[in-house]
Amino acid sequence: MFAQIYICDSMKEYNTSFKLEIIQNLKSFIPTLQIFQKFYIISNIIEVDVIQQNNDYDCGLFLINYFNILFNTLSKIKNMESIIEYFDKLNDYNLFITRDDLFDLILNYKKTEKKNIINKKHDEIIIKDYLSPKGLVNLGSTCYINSIIQMLINIKDFTKILNQNLKPGNLLNLFQKLQSKGSKIINPLTFITHYKIFGETIELNVQKDSHEFLLSLFNHMELNLKKRILTKRKKLTKEQEEKIIKYSYLSTKEQIQKIQRDYNITVSPSWITRMKKRNNITKKEQISQSIINQSSIVDYNFEQKYLISEETKIFGLRTTSRKYNIPISTLYNWTNKNMLPEEQLKRVKSRGRKARLKKWEIEKVGEWIDLQNQKGIICGGHEVINFINKNFNYKYHKSSISRILQSIGYSSRKTQTKVNNQLIPSFSAKIETKRKEINKKIALKSNNKNFNVWVMDEKGIWNHHPARYTYTRKSNPKPWVKGKLVNSKDTLTATVSYKGEIPDLFWIKSVTKTKKREKVSGMNVQKMLEYVDHFLTFANSGDILLMDNLRSHHNIDVKKKLEDSGIEVIYFTPNGASHLSPLDNAAFKILEDKLRKNGGRRFANYFDKIVTVNNLWKSIPNGTVSFTFKAQTFNQI
Predict the structure, then answer these.
(1) USP domain location, by residue (predicted)?
(2) Residue 606 burial class via C-beta count within 10 angstroms: exposed 0-12, middle 13-18, buried 19 and up
(3) Which of 164, 208, 172 is CA-nearest to residue 62?
(4) E strand or H helix at 263, and its extent?
(5) Which residues, 6 or more positions from 130, have their beta carbon under 8 angstroms from its beta carbon?
(6) Inter-helix orientation angle 556-564/525-535, to 10°
(7) Contact of 332 with 249, CB cutoff 8 Å
(8) Model confidence over 16-68: pLDDT tens digits?
(9) What is the rounded distance in angstroms from the CA atom of residue 521 to the CA atom of residue 567?
């Protein structure tokens, strides 16, 4: 057999996330990787058997390890360049080794008797005894795994770094077994089971690409490397540690950045803690020292001027000054930059703890919120803050809204759905299209006075809210509401007609252990079918049912049951944009009036709707009402 080895520079490039910079001996490691990092090696074995038949066999990188094992055992093979010379000599002696003989020698190297195959061909060619390397048992075409692993363990720098930095586990145990003495056969099932990152890539009886396996192996090794600093940390002197203590007024992140910038050392928060313990520095001493260091920067007594109390010294710097009610750390930052003018303190004074709303101001804000709710305008945090700042000459920030509302006696529900403003015009156009479609179908049935138009929607009581910011007075639900709820995740399904009819409410128990595709808004297909049976008890053939375009609503079984009963279904909300339909929200306004008479305010306010226009639902069939989407609500044009 005659073999030719071609080394083609940059014939094929591979991208891997394996970070070489984390390897300790980078300079010595890179050259050893050149065999598979910079070069793509193609081995063309031209086989010549006794019948002089020539067949080409293309080998990939995974055979290079086997060639190394074979060639290093021959007495006259010193390096890769002498391979061609060696096989030329075999040709001179008219010796032809078939592919089966060669692969039998390579793949079954554990059998020592195979070392004399070439000796039997010619006495002058002598193969020295060699140590058979360990390997994985070839279970169903796993030789490509075997070859790559053996090639890596023959790179001394690689195995050294691997043993030092790989986390304990199956992957480390595998490489340690391959390097140890003793048994020369290792079962690969443990390795394959551990190697879950491949998914379906590693399968028994399936041959895969060795190059892909190599790069994936690097990625897997990266995930299993110990996350620690590989370089030795420099030891600080006593004087340097004392200087670092003065950084304690900074945050932990700022301390680490400053130490790294000043001393070129990377430290962790735990290292700073240990350093303080070594120097017997308590929290009180640390903060007192920081105050002294900072007060020396300016020309006045920092502690006396800003009334820093003893509690501030003991419990930390992230408290507020008794005089200006702003964080001490902010004062320190200003003094460092020599920028502590009285005008700047006056500007932030109104945001402090003393700037509270008076009792009569609280009552005015509450009356204004109630008035806006009666008008159908949903008040957001920005609106409340702007009203307070404009009418009472305060400078509250929007981050203070929660504290303000609690002092007023309101509870806030952050329930606004994020909507892309660019989609609003197209959404409004789709609403108009649907409304015209509904009006047309109602006009066709105008002769039938018995038909009805129904809107169905489901609402979660406690954990699903309308898609807006709403602020409502705190109150507890009535006992009859609590009696209806068995679980906080129960769902209320209600149906309202445009004539104002409200059938019995339908309570759906919480659905547990359902797949995501089966459960939508607390319902799944089976529960939806139960609701349809309930709906058909009061609906008549020829009625129109409007529903959101949800997966559980347009299920095939649900549609078939409704259509068989003569119910025409219209999915109103386009493209699944649920909770933004003005029709069903307006319809539930009628339901709200009924619930207000029977339940507490908190329960009733759950049905505060985006659109609250008198007789809105009754005017829809005539096409006299249209809507446009604004920042906080739907308003009548």
Answers:
(1) 134-397
(2) buried
(3) 208
(4) helix 252-263
(5) 69, 72, 73, 115
(6) 10
(7) yes
(8) 333 333 333 333 333 233 333 222 222 222 222 222 333 333 333 334 444 44
(9) 23
The amino acid that residue 503 corresponds to is P
Q: The tokens 């290079």 sit on which residue? A: 64
Name, in order, each residue with C-beta under 8 angstroms of 85's C-beta and a sequence gap of 6 or more: none
> Which of 15-29, 421-435, 490-504, 597-611 reaches the highest mean pLDDT?
490-504
Rounded Cα distance between 65 and 79, Å, is 13
Between 114 and 394, name the one with better pLDDT: 394
Say how far residue 541 (Cα) sits from the centre of its chain: 48
List, as one string, the DSSP characters of 150-212.
HHHHT-HHHHHHHHHHBPSSHHHHHHHHHHSSS--EE-THHHHHH-GGGTTSS-TT----HHH
Give the integer Cα–Cα distance in Å for 77 and 586: 89
Higher pLDDT, residue 158 or 539: 539
Residue 503 near residue 538 (C-beta atoms within 8 A): yes
| 24 CB neighbour count, 10 Å cutoff | 13
Domains of the chain: 1-231 (no CATH), 238-339 (no CATH), 359-408 (no CATH), 421-468+477-636 (3.30.420)
Rounded CA-CA distance 340/334 in Å is 6
Token representation of residue 391: 């009418």
Contacts of 567 (CB under 8 A, 6+ apart): 536, 539, 541, 543, 544, 545
**Orientation of helix 156-165 relative to helix 170-179, angle to 10°:** 140
Is 497 in contact with 453 (CB distance < 8 Å)?
Answer: yes
Q: How far is CA 20 from the centre of its chain?
A: 26
Angle at the Cα of 488 (from 484 to 490), degrees rounded to 5?
65
C-alpha angle with apex 426: 581 to 519, nearest 5 degrees?
Answer: 45
Torsion 546-551-553-559 (CA) sign: positive
Residues composing the chain? 637
DSSP calls for 74-141: BTT--SGGGHHHHHHHHHHTT----HHHHHHHHHTTTSGGGGGHHHHH-TT--B---PPPPEE---SS
312 within 8 A of 341, measured Cβ to Cβ: no
Tokens of 191: 């390795």
Under the banding of pLDDT at 50, 70 and 90, the label for residue 183 is low
Half-sphere exposure of 578 (CA within 13 A, CB side): 17
Q: Six-digit token pair at 122?
A: 């010619």
Give the H or E element holding residue 278.
helix 269-278
Q: Which two tokens stand for residue 404?
A: 């303000």
Structural element, H or E, at residue 474? none
Pairing type for strands 185-186 and 410-414 reads unpaired
- String of b and e for 324-350 (b: at least 16 CB within 10 Å)? bbbebbbbbebbeeeebeeeebeeeee
Question: How many whole angstroms separate alpha carbon 436 and alpha carbon 571?
Answer: 14
Quick one: CA dihedral 205, 207, 212, 218, positive or negative? Answer: positive
Distances from the Cα of 325 to the Cαs of 306, 308, 345, 397, in angstroms?
A: 10, 11, 10, 15
Q: How far apart are CA 254 and CA 603, in angstroms?
A: 48
The CA radius of gyration of the chain, in Å to the nearest whole number, is 39
